Amino acid sequence: MLHILNKAPHSDAAQQVLQVLGKDDVLLLIEEAVQIIVYPDWEGWKQHSSRIYLLEEDVLSRGFQAEILSGSLPVVNISKFVSLTEQHKQSVTWY
């Protein structure tokens, strides 16, 4: 399942998605959720780092260019976002 989170890291939605994220699920961070970049100790990174992606356009619009250039973040563009939705039969958006 594809989970799409648009809320900030310390929101109820961010905490809830971590509780239900399954072993084959993917988490895409969009809008305000990309602020998670500045929280390296966020529990999601520790538990699910290989399955978390950040939407590039939202990362750039919030001024995190240096983080993208470092290459250490799993950033996807809109085309990859569409591909993720096609790869997963179900998706849930967390507001």
Describe what you observe in this structure:
The structure is a single chain. This protein has one domain (2-94): Hypothetical Protein Ychn, Chain: A. 38% of the residues lie in helices and 19% in strands. It has 5 helices and 5 strands, in the order E-H-E-H-E-H-H-E-H-E. Strands 4-3-2-1-5 form a 5-stranded parallel β-sheet. Strand 2, helix 2 (43-48) and strand 3 (52-55) form a beta-alpha-beta unit. It is globular. The model has no long low-confidence stretch (mean pLDDT 91).
- CATH architecture annotation name: 3-Layer(aba) Sandwich
Rough outline: globular
Which strand-content bin applies to the residues? 15-25%
Number of distinct helices: 5
Q: Write down how many β-strands occur, each being a DSSP E stretch of 2 or more residues.
A: 5
Largest sheet: 5 strands, parallel
Set down the secondary structure blueprint.
Layout: E1 2-5, H1 12-20, E2 26-29, H2 43-48, E3 52-55, H3 56-61, H4 65-69, E4 75-76, H5 78-87, E5 91-94
Parallel strand pairs: 1-2, 1-5, 2-3, 3-4
Attribute tags:
about 100 residues; alpha/beta; Hypothetical Protein Ychn, Chain: A; 5-stranded parallel sheet; 5 strands
Task: Give a nutshell description of this structure.
The protein has 95 residues and is of the alpha/beta class. It is built from 5 helices and 5 strands. The chain has a single domain (2-94), classed as DsrEFH-like (Hypothetical Protein Ychn, Chain: A).
